[in-house]
Amino acid sequence: AMALLWVLSCLALAGFARAALPESCGVPAIAPVVRGYNRIVNGEPAVPGSWPWQVSLQVRARGGPGAGENWVVTAAHCGVRKTDTVVVGAYDQDAPGPDQQKLKIEKVFKNPKFNMLTIRDDITLIKLATPAQTSDRVSPVCLPKATDEFPAGTTCVTTGWGLTDSS
What are the tens digits of pLDDT across the range 104-117? Predict the structure, then answer.
């Protein structure tokens, strides 16, 4: 399945991230196209390479954003293990492209406060064994500061692989 793009009117966090200068993260070299205000279901195909922080967590088809060359942030409910593989630079998971890199995990930091019943504190940090090689199609997203506020109705985009309709 191809990388899909969905626009949400809420805050979502996913991907390859970095706490760094704003101009060094979160700006794709290839411009994405964002149309409409679809939900996760009824998403649309992304422009290849336009979400360079999107990563794929291999074995269990989960994803998240990259958080710098050595870090990935994802949901704790994904249950990431050290034996899983992180893939960066992927667009079509069925046809590996020239920018794709498969990376081993050094350590998984699951939030100790995560509660599966309430889905509160649903975050895991993954430290990569080797850094991702950044390019136009592989780069980190920006992580917000703890003090950042996002007003109701703020447009947010989430990306990943999956179905674009409910059938």
Answer: 999 999 999 999 89
